[in-house]
Amino acid sequence: DQQVKQNSPSLSVQEGRISILNCDYTNSMFDYFLWYKKYPAEGPTFLISISSIKDKNEDGRFTVFLNKSAKHLSLHIVPSQPGDSAVYFCAASAILGGKLQFGAGTQVVVTP
Amino acid sequence: DTGVSQDPRHKITKRGQNVTFRCDPISEHNRLYWYRQTLGQGPEFLTYFQNEAQLEKSRLLSDRFSAERPKGSFSTLEIQRTEQGDSAMYLCASSADPSETQYFGPGTRLLVL
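ok -> structure tokens follow
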């Protein structure tokens, strides 16, 4: 039962442009949403999070948008840099400090 | 380095053998989580602890899997009678309480031959 879905397995974007990653979820009990970045042979690295009481959170080049009615969130990276090339995972939790449920990930490639 | 550490980083074993992995969380993080990741998938939750208490276990965690956190600090994950399907990356994460943010270690890659 995949409750968090990332329907785009890959994304290619030019350096300097905006990267937009999408995530959909089915469980209306989710209250906390996170994005992680993962390089090969490393553990996921936390990027940014948002709780269900907000619709936007921004941290430097990263902005996460949450649309609760559509059960959809997105991550915007502006401007994209070569070091952003990685797999990005969307994750959600129903309880503060509880287990995370992850999407399958989106491979981002930033080209010069 | 004050991040989450895991040992070993890699483990190759033969089917039927037992393996044990260790995770050291970030100091003073009282929550510790275990996940498993296979190729092309996101991490899947296995179990988590608050201090030494195991609060939740996934249905993925068969009776061949056992996790402990005896003193509320480091944790071990043991797999008995390993099967080829156990081959995966085993990830540990920790978080402060209360927080939604979990910080992951580098993982232990297990290969069962």
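The mean pLDDT of chain B is 94.
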